[in-house]
Structure formats: structure tokens, C-alpha cells
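User: Please predict the structure of the protein below. I'd like the answer in C-alpha cell form so I can feed it into my own downstream comparison script.

Assistant: Understood. Taking the following sequence of 113 residues as input:
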Amino acid sequence: VQLVESGGGLVQAGGSLRLSCAASESAFSRNTLGWYRQAPGRQRELVASITSAGITNYADSVKGRFTISRDNAVNTVYLQMNSLKPEDTAVYYCKLSATYVYWGQGTQVTVTS
């Protein structure tokens, strides 16, 4: 399975970005997907996840600002990020949890103050 993220970039604080992660296989629909992020010098952390049933989970730091969603018809998971803060700056990774765990290559999000 290949995961390809897109949508990262440079944005001012208070702005929005929408990340996308496209999977190469249709098995996507049966598995849990997640967005993680890693800032310089910090461990990779969970941002949000969504199960095959659509149950979502968010890190406390992004609740009310970020929304994860999935479109199984096009094997894509999204992360809508609103009210961005400088502390949201990180490389964002998509993860698919199946029999094995698959990661995307990451997309950089930089939020300036």
C-alpha cells in the first residue's frame, strides 16, 4: 500500500489548510486511518484518527480546530485544519493501520505568527 500526502504549505496564524492522503489500494475502506505530526526535536504524535465506521478521535490540542474525514470511493483521507497556530508547525504524516502499518512520506505544514 502506498500513501501519498498533499496539501501542506506555508500559512499565517489563523489560516486554514486541507491535507489529503490518497491510498493506492481499495483495502483502505476497511481500515483505520490517522494523521500524525512531528515537529523538530519532538516525537511523532497522533493528531486525529478515523475508523472504518467513521468514529473519530482527536488530540486535545486540535479539538475544535481540525476535522478528519474519509472518502472511501476515492481511497482518500482528509484533514481540514482551521485556526492554525505556530505550534501546529510540523511534518504531517498519514498512517494506515491494517495487518501491517503503512506511512506516507509526510507533508510540511508551517504556520507563521
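That's the full C-alpha cell string. The radius of gyration is 13 Å.
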